[in-house]
Design goal:
single chain, about 325 residues, TIM Barrel, eight-stranded parallel beta barrel, four-stranded mixed sheet, about 30% helix, binds 8-OXO-2'-deoxyguanosine-5'-triphosphate, magnesium, Aldolase_TIM, mutator protein, 8-oxo-dGTP diphosphatase, EC 3.6.1.55
Length: about 325
């Protein structure tokens, strides 16, 4: 059976859930009650969309029935396609802009208000891991182009990207790094000053030793990922992996990567001739792991919402996020 055949198994359900935030910026989680699938796990309140119902109407109804509130549904956060052993669902998560009434667990479910940075410490279903990442982590992952001869210009462009709101950067310049490792190290040091200054996060392309030396994250190329059986850095330093198929995604998940980059999704100038896997295939792969995944290949800033609607953490790009 092919991966795509397997991914089509089981009934397909559309679930809507709400991110309800209180005045102290805490998010509401509900505990799934005994006797139901995934019992005991914490979830964002919501439920299945009934036939003929809009997702918004379904969410208003579910929150009224489960919590006793009248909610105003806001913008989409992410829609996560997820394959479970006996079902396949699309978890469509919306922000709740406002509500009236007092939140109560009308089904006998436990409720908890959680500060955003503590969400990851609650046991949740697989589909919720990408949701938590979407709420907390950057939706744009910049990959630097080669600096060429003009390092000052490269640094200025990096700074402009950071000033434009990019908060996660992979410092990548394989030709430059091989050509002059000493100069690359100096350039990385200077780049890191800008990254720290703007409160962003940096990862270095494929060089675990350099990541350790600078105390930053590492972005694993697929060939290196394939040699690993455990996470190469502590939890305090990011580990993201480049993946192209289900085997690599599963490996990235099993060694405890924080996220993966999957692509090319669309044709891209950096890989001329490669057609791209397309969004449908992206979804088929996305739903078989619980990792947050950035979509790579032909992506521009305007594609973040589209990427999120296919369950991506956001976009990863060189050209699409590099100024000028
Ligand atoms: N409401 C909600 N459901 C979630 C989340 N994450 C997640 O995997 N789910 C799954 C669990 C359920 O399979 C489905 C929601 O269906 P439901 O809660 O209305 O249905 P249910 O458990 O009564 O019925 P069943 O799925 O056990 O047949 O979505 C989440 O954050 N919120």
């Amino acid at each position: 059976m092919s991966d795509s055949d397997r991914s089509r198994n089981g009934k397909h359900i559309h679930v809507v859930a709400g991110v309800i935030v209180d005045a102290r910026d805490r998010i509401l989680l509900a505990r799934r009650t005994e006797g139901r699938d995934l019992a005991g796990l914490w979830e964002f309140p919501g439920g299945k969309v009934d036939p003929g119902e809009t997702p918004e109407a379904a969410l208003v109804r579910e929150l009224r029935e489960e919590l006793g509130i009248e909610a105003r549904v806001g913008t989409p956060v992410i829609a996560v396609p997820q394959q479970y052993p006996h079902k396949r669902l699309r978890l469509d998560v919306r922000r709740i802009d406002a509500w009236t009434g007092t939140v109560k667990g009308l089904d006998g479910q436990a409720l908890v208000w959680v500060p955003s940075h503590k969400l990851a410490s609650y046991a949740m279903p697989d589909a919720d891991r990408p949701v938590v990442a979407a709420l907390q982590d950057p939706d744009r992952y910049l990959i630097t182009p080669e600096p060429g001869e003009d390092a000052a210009r490269w640094l200025a462009a990096l700074r402009a990207a950071l000033d434009a709101g990019v908060r996660r950067v992979q410092l990548r310049a394989p030709a430059f790094a091989v050509g002059d490792p000493g100069r690359w190290r100096t350039l990385v040091e200077r780049a890191l000053a800008h990254v720290r200054d703007t409160g962003a996060e940096a990862l270095i392309n494929d060089d675990v030793a350099m990541a350790e030396a600078f105390g930053i994250g590492v972005h694993l190329r697929a060939p290196r990922l394939r040699t690993l059986s455990s996470r190469p850095l502590p939890k305090t330093q990011l580990v993201i992996a480049s993946c192209h198929d289900l085997e690599e995604l599963r490996l990235a998940q099993s060694i405890g990567c924080d996220a993966a980059v999957l692509g090319p999704v669309l044709p891209t100038a950096s890989h001329p001739g490669a057609p791209g896997i397309g969004w449908e295939r992206f979804v088929e792969l996305r739903e078989q792991v619980a990792l947050p995944i950035y979509a790579l290949g032909g992506m521009a800033v305007g594609d973040v919402a589209l990427a999120r609607s296919h369950g991506a953490q956001g976009i990863a790009a060189i050209r699409g996020l590099w100024p000028g």
